[in-house]
Amino acid sequence: MSGPGWRYPADSVSGDRRAGGGEPRRFLIATAVTRYPAATHLDWDRPGLVAARDDIVELFTGRLGYQHVTDLGLDPTADQLTRHLRDFCRSSERRPDDVLAVYIAGHGEIVENTGQHVLLMSDTDPDDPDDALTTAALAPKMLLGTSIRRLLLMLDTCYAGQGGNEFVAAALTGVGNDRHHAFGTGLAVVTSAYPHQQAETGAFPRVLGRAVDSLATAGHGPATLDIDALVARMNGDPSLPPHQRIVAHLARMSG
Q1: Beta strands in the chain, from DSSP E residues, in sequence order
Q2: 13-55 pLDDT, tens per residue?
Q3: Which of 24, 49, 86, 117 could anchor a disulfide with 162, C-beta 3.0 to 4.6 Å?
Q4: Any residues with CB less than 8 A from the CB of 98 and at least 6 apart, and which?
Q5: Residue 21 carries which DSSP code?
Q6: pLDDT tens-digit profile of 207-239?
Q7: Is the peptide bond before 222 cis (omega within 30 degrees of 0)?
Q8: Which fold has domain 1-6+24-42+63-197+240-255?
């Protein structure tokens, strides 16, 4: 799903697209699940993800020129997350040249009965993992029947690499035929770990920020963000735990 030179737009833009052209608008939706009320006995809570999300928001709004969509906040339920993503992506205010970045942090698991990657939201029943939100289910929520043509999804969970694979597969098989693009169309999923790896709290935003700064210093951008170069810098960061590797899943959708 990847290839050298695939680039994801990352330049700073103004809020509205100018008549007759202009730069696309860029939006960020960032959330983290830090509290699990139904699983207090399992030590699932991750208060450190509050700072991790804040770091992502600061990076994208401060250095990459994105507008943060703040409605979702922290600790969403499965319904709150999917409803918010769906409502935003289906809004009549969306334009085909909009760029959307989504960051989701929390616990991720691979369900034993199905082998699917799931996101453990704040309302997840720890005794019923089969009913947890599948990562693949987010693809139609954001892409099917919407105007979203350019999407960067960042998954900061354990085993996120499998979730990235399943999301891209769902986008290409279930949504791909619905893409009618007059603008550049691309999908990038950057995950904080391989399918078999756990993710350390806070590591992903830390190495992402350093990689962005490093590429900027080296003369990359600000017009584009090269995902391949970015991931290479992230994986080369000595502060990244040795058991954790960043993965990029890249695709173009056509219809």
Answers
A1: 7-9, 26-32, 67-68, 99-105, 107-110, 117-120, 133-134, 150-156, 186-191, 224-226, 247-251
A2: 333 444 345 788 999 999 999 999 999 999 999 999 999 999 9
A3: 117
A4: 24, 25, 26, 27, 147, 148, 149, 150
A5: -
A6: 999 999 998 765 555 456 789 999 999 999 999
A7: yes
A8: Rossmann fold (3.40.50)
